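Q: Fold this one first, please.
A: Sequence and structure below.
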Amino acid sequence: MAKKEHLNLVFIGHVDSGKSTSVGRILYETGAVSEQTLNKLKDEAAKVGKATFEFAFVMDALKEERERGVTIDIAHREFETPKYHCTIIDAPGHRDFVKNMITGASQADAAVLQVSVKDGIQPQTKEHAFLAKVLGINQFAVNMNKMDAVGYKKEEYEKQKVEVEKLLKGIGYKTETMSFVPCSGYVGDNLIKKSANMPWYTGPTLLEVIDSFKVPPKPTDKALRLPVQDVYTITGHGTVPVGRVETGILKPNESVIVMPSGVKGEVKKIEMHHQELTEAVPGDNVGFNLKGVDKKDIKKGDVIGPVSNPPKVAEEFTAQIVVLNHPTAISIGYTPVFHIHTAQFAGKITELVEKKDPKSGASLGKPDFIKTGDVAIVKIQPLKPIVIEKFSDFPPLGRFALRDMGQTVAAGVVLDVKPKAM
């Protein structure tokens, strides 16, 4: 059997739109989760008074796994479509979902936006859709979920579809080419199999839509950049960082440098899903032994690159940001928390360079402050050493979100980096 191409998929949308259930159902129907496991989860769900939650539990089984730290493939679940080998990024029901959504979405090739037809557009529906756009996800399907809760009525679907189209158009998505699939995650309508409950819908199933997505070309010609997601110490293997190759190629016996610390080490064995690799290419989530690097010298958020072309540590950077949601206004000196690749850091806005018209991109001059809905170019000074790259050079290391007061305040892309003198 020829190896299928790999597609990274993120499920986004409001917390109660049924993401975990839909994902669990897909994993079950594509054979990624066995009948036996599902029955066990069904019993567990009933025990804790959550009957109907068995599919959601498929994803939540990860939580304990995570706490016990048993496997390295913790935040991902795999399934096969006729065309692709898919990885679903991050347990979608995670409480601090936006933060994960940011690291998750920056790794995704495509997204499924989930909207409950019963409840309509919710605040997170907007936030996630917007973030996906800023983070550069252009392939999108909309899962119009919970059709069973509205009696499979076409008019309910049409009513919500108009609203979702309006929302996505406003963000800048081309909705003409997008699929809106009426589904029921719990019953399984139109996820994998065509639904007999909705004869009025003649379009593709969600799985068929996923198969119509394209895998972006792999930037193997660029220098290696691998943001670290976790670091384990495994007996007999030493220090084992885990992360996803964003650009370039990771090979055994290669000398690499860990930034911002500047520690050098040698890559030994590379593994993905417990299989040894002779090289890891962009998109591969891998664990690898790093010889000569102590566990204390490497942490989540560090970036690994070649000694000849080390990842840039920023003294200051210039970025274009979109203010999504700020109660008042943002001015010079504002210091929120930034999330970029797998790292987070406090950064101070040192200059508001210019404000732009969000629709045309035309300059609106230098502002004194910016508020919700504004697009602006700003300068930011990180308050700790952190790897940041220009979006045009290394897209996954050049897009970020700003969080403050428990919410995403803004999102943006890096236009330029002033490197720290090392």
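Q: Good. Now the second chain.
A: Here it is, same layout.
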Amino acid sequence: MSREDKDDEKAAEAEAREIERYGIDERTLTPIGLTTPSGRFVPEVVVNVVRFTWLGAWIALFAWGLTGPALVVMFAWIAANGAYEKHRKQLRRERRRQIQAHITARGGLPAGGGTDAVGPAGVPAALASAPPAPGAAPSAAAEQPVAVPPSLSASPAERALTRTLRRVEASERFERRDAVLVGELADVLFPLLAKVSEPGSDPRVRHDVETIATEHLPASVDAFLALPAEHVRTSRNSSGRTPLEELRTQLDLLLTGCEQLQEAVLRSDVARQQEQSRFLEQKFRPSGLDL
């Protein structure tokens, strides 16, 4: 099993725990699978059967010496498999937003009550909640807690990210799903900002992470808020998207970028651990000459 498959399995297990903990009706969540052109939904278990059967088909064709047909089937499988994985990732992300919306609607309380309330960013609600900007009118988005870091000695990038989150919280423009998406960005960004500030971190990765927090995300939020409220859902730009759709596209791209940077940090940590193992082996492993 690849590391990507293991990560996906862990994410699915964490999702199942949240569904059970908060008493979420899974029928209200986006199902994972494919919808055919005729409108029929095909669940993922059936899609996987087709994928693996298809995979076995082109392997068998190669084994039988039918190289030409095997190449056609193989490249078709690669294209279809890549498209499905991209589609599946979008469905997973949408389910995540829906789960966070359910948790927010419950006030972060698990099914049956409890005192261990948490906000959508995975931090205690007492830490996640931030006061609205002075004079800001209450809004539906204001019910969405933001992932404010608990540290009193926050870095400039963390402070910039917190200011952006508070702007989203205090604004009436952001629908719940968009506020949840910004919260997902914060879930990734705050730990990343702390990680890249450690000694020995890659300066390029640190620059990219801090730039998202201090420039890219605030620019997307500011550009959206600068538009007249009556235009954000009706007017369309040259690409055919409304300002609200454009914002969601930008937030999705930023989240994808954060996930890629998260992977880069993980790879760096793995490489550092391997280097330490090699160093210790060279220093302490007994040599055959010592026998």
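Q: Anything worth noting on the second one?
A: Residues 114-152 have pLDDT under 50 and may be disordered.
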